[in-house]
């Protein structure tokens, strides 16, 4: 009864085991014949299948090996056990065969995918070839084959791009014309005589805005009043105060000073160019005491006075260790000057003292000074424009070590180009800033604070290649300022201190460039503007 029960239980299990082994044999044999046409990723899956079959075969082996130790296989006959063992051995054999063939195919496919090695033919060395010919001079060998001696090392001399002109007076020799010509001699004689007619200092009254606008509307420009005077950009412009003739002076970036007499019929005959400096001429004024003298200041650290009567440029002030930015007259006699330096220093110069040095050197509270301007009524006050600060000083309380300003204007947010008192009373101050604003302050009472009156929106971004704008007052109408414009068509604009636009000068085809630097005649309705190519527009 026990044998019958075991046979009944074990028979289905043996049949399932034998069928599983036979199916494994069939599948293994089928994989052997079909795997030759498959790709590489299929071989990877076959390897996984083989491993599964191996595991199943190992399970069978483990079952067969452990069968004698189990009670449930104790009822199998020797024939059944032998058959089961043969099936397991066959399965292991085919599985190992399939695994080895799959690995062989995988190695062949890897070899096929490898790029063939490039076999470059090595150039054959010429045993008795002749080399390139080389110059014996480059080999530093003389014709006999003896090495030449090494040349002595010469010290390298760095040439200065803008060397200073020699100290002392310079002859007023025009570069564009012959200095011995009768025309140039007559030019000097004429302007020396014109300058002798002194202008009486009469009290000037402001003209009402309507009359002022009408006079501005009558001003015209044409091709005869536009001419190239200097080489390079113009940094300063001045008009001679004569009421009978028109003479324009222009200071250039190249250090030139050009004079243009508009009374000549031919423009070429009336232009004379001089070279009193080697760097930009940033400030240019006719002397208020003697209009036959024109004073020019340059970045090269020199301040000169051109004398028409003597045909010479005298040296007034020289400092080779510093660079000058601006100057102004401290009195009507033009004997005392105040000079601003780019490093923030201020010099007081007396022209009556022999020599070309300063009387006093003051260290201001500014890191740089762009412009300096003296109050027209109270001459002890002067205003300086720095990088982002504007200071008003009193010359009576200047300290050589470090002077503190009386008033500081801190409303500016970007770089400042200029700051000027109004020309008649000094009751207003106009500033030009890179934040596209012109500011007008009330300086009628110089105390601890100067209130801001008006802010005028104006494009002051001239870029790298144009001279920066500087808003200046009209010496005839001190409540109006003149400034260049970046707008199209090109123009020069005049604003009232209230912020209203008074007039715009349009020149049509005669004014097609930006006039960055402008000035007005002190008594006549004449405007002169210079652009960044050396042209003067009148």
UniProtKB/TrEMBL annotation:
Q: Which SUPFAM superfamilies match?
A: WD40 repeat-like
Q: Where is the composition biased (Polar residues)?
A: 16-27
In the UniProt record, which is one GO cellular component term? nucleus
> What GO molecular function terms would the record report?
DNA binding
Disordered, as annotated region: 1-27, 52-76, 110-163
One Gene Ontology term of the biological-process aspect is: regulation of DNA damage checkpoint
Mind listing the UniProt keywords for this protein, alphabetically? Answer: Repeat, WD repeat
> Pfam families in the record, alphabetically?
WD40
Task: Name the source's superkingdom.
Answer: Eukaryota
Sequence similarity: Belongs to the WD repeat DDB2/WDR76 family.
* Subunit description: Interacts with CUL4A and/or CUL4B.
Q: What does this protein do?
A: Specifically binds 5-hydroxymethylcytosine (5hmC), suggesting that it acts as a specific reader of 5hmC.
What's this protein's name?
A: WD repeat-containing protein 76
Q: Which organism is it from?
A: Mustela putorius furo (European domestic ferret)
């Amino acid at each position: 009864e026990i044998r019958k029960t075991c046979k009944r239980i074990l028979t289905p299990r043996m049949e399932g085991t034998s069928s599983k082994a036979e199916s494994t044999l069939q599948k293994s044999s089928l994989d052997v014949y079909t795997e030759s046409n498959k790709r590489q990723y299929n071989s990877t899956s076959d390897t996984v299948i083989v491993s599964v079959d191996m595991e199943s075969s190992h399970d069978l082996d483990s079952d067969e090996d452990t069968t004698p130790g189990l009670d449930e296989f104790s009822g199998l006959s020797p024939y059944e056990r032998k058959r089961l063992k043969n099936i397991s051995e066959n399965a292991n054999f085919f599985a190992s065969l399939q695994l080895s063939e799959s690995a062989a195919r995988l190695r062949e496919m890897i070899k096929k995918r490898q790029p063939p090695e490039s076999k470059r033919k090595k150039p054959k060395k010429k045993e008795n070839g002749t080399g390139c010919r080389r110059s014996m001079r480059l080999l530093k060998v003389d014709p006999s084959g003896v090495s030449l001696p090494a040349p002595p090392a010469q010290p390298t001399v760095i040439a200065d791009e803008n060397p200073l002109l020699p100290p002392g007076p310079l002859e007023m020799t025009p570069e564009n014309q012959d200095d011995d010509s009768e025309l140039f001699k007559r030019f000097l004689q004429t302007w020396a005589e014109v300058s002798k007619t002194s202008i009486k200092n009469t009290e000037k009254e402001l003209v009402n805005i309507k009359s002022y606008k009408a006079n501005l509307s009558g001003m015209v420009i044409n091709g005869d009043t536009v001419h190239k005077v200097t080489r390079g950009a113009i940094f300063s412009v001045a008009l001679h105060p004569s009421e009978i003739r028109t003479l324009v002076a222009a200071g250039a970036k190249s250090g030139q000073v050009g004079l243009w007499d508009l009374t000549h019929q031919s423009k070429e005959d009336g232009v004379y160019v001089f070279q009193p400096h080697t760097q930009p001429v940033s400030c240019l004024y006719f002397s208020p005491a003697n209009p036959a003298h024109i004073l020019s200041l340059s970045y090269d650290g020199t301040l000169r006075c051109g004398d028409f009567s003597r045909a010479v440029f005298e040296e007034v002030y020289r400092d080779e260790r510093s660079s000058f930015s601006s100057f102004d007259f401290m009195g009507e006699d033009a004997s005392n000057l105040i000079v601003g330096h780019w490093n923030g220093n201020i010099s007081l110069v007396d022209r009556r003292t022999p020599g070309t040095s300063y009387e006093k050197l003051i260290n201001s509270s500014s890191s740089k000074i762009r412009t300096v301007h003296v109050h027209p009524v109270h001459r002890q006050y002067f205003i300086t424009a720095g990088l982002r600060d504007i200071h008003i000083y009193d010359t009576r309380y200047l300290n050589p070590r470090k002077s503190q300003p009386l008033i500081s204007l801190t409303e500016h947010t970007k770089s400042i180009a200029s700051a000027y008192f109004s020309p008649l009373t000094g009751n207003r101050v106009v500033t030009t800033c890179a934040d596209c604003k012109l500011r007008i302050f009330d300086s009628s009472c110089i105390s601890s604070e100067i209130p801001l009156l008006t802010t005028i929106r104006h494009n002051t971004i001239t870029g790298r290649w144009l001279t920066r704008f500087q808003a200046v007052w009209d010496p005839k109408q001190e409540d109006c300022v003149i400034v260049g414009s970046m707008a199209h068509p090109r123009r020069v604009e005049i604003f009232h201190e209230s912020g209203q636009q008074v007039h715009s000068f349009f020149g049509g085809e005669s004014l097609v460039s930006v006039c960055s630097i402008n000035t007005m005649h002190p008594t006549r309705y004449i405007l002169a503007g210079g652009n960044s190519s050396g042209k003067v527009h009148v």
